[in-house]
Design goal:
single chain, alpha/beta, Rossmann fold, 4-stranded parallel beta sheet, 6 helices
Length: 182
């Protein structure tokens, strides 16, 4: 049976990120099932952070707004696209939990439906303010542009997703580096 996690998640007391000044910067990428887009964004961002020599400053994760694929590895086509680009895409799908709002500084959604679902979960306006659309960081993307879901397509769609993530994640990292003076 497919369940949507939004209907039975517990509330969370408080919503401030656990990050202390000088502590890890916590980023979670979110799509629907957490097997295509969000693990790709996680892998790309992890790769860019490592290239910048900042791995010790970040905690990077991904999740889904639904539990359709909980425990599954990323789609084999996403992993193959990553290998072609020299980027590791791994992990296991998991649902985004309300408690994740307290854990993460940045909650980065892949499309408007993910933003909406995360907004329903947010326990406060401060938590909701952590939610951003990934492509909103790309200055060349149209307003509210999604990272398209490649699940029902072919390998080319996964390559496209990887490139969109590479561009947007690069700008996200630049913004965080400016804000945190890294």
């Amino acid at each position: 049976m497919l369940r949507h996690w939004l209907h039975y998640l517990p509330s969370v007391e408080g919503d401030a990120a656990v990050t202390q000044p000088g502590g890890a910067i916590r980023v979670c990428f979110v799509c629907l099932g957490n097997i295509c887009r969000s693990p790709t964004a996680e892998g790309v961002f992890r790769h860019l952070v490592a290239q910048a020599g900042l791995s010790e400053r970040f905690e990077i994760d991904s999740a889904g707004t639904a539990d359709y694929h909980a425990g599954d590895p990323p789609d084999h086509r996403a992993r193959a696209a990553g290998r072609r680009a020299g980027i590791t895409i791994d992990g296991a799908a998991r649902p985004f939990l309300r408690t994740d709002f307290a854990r993460f500084d940045h909650v980065i959604a892949m499309d408007a439906a993910n933003v909406r679902d995360l907004g329903f979960m947010a326990p406060s306006p401060e938590a909701a303010a952590k939610i951003r659309l990934l492509r909103s960081f790309d200055p060349h993307a149209e307003k509210d542009a999604p990272v398209p879901d490649p699940y029902y397509g072919d390998a080319a769609g996964f390559d496209q997703v990887l490139e969109l993530c590479r561009t947007a994640c690069g700008h996200l990292l630049e913004e965080i580096r400016r804000e945190r003076r890294l």
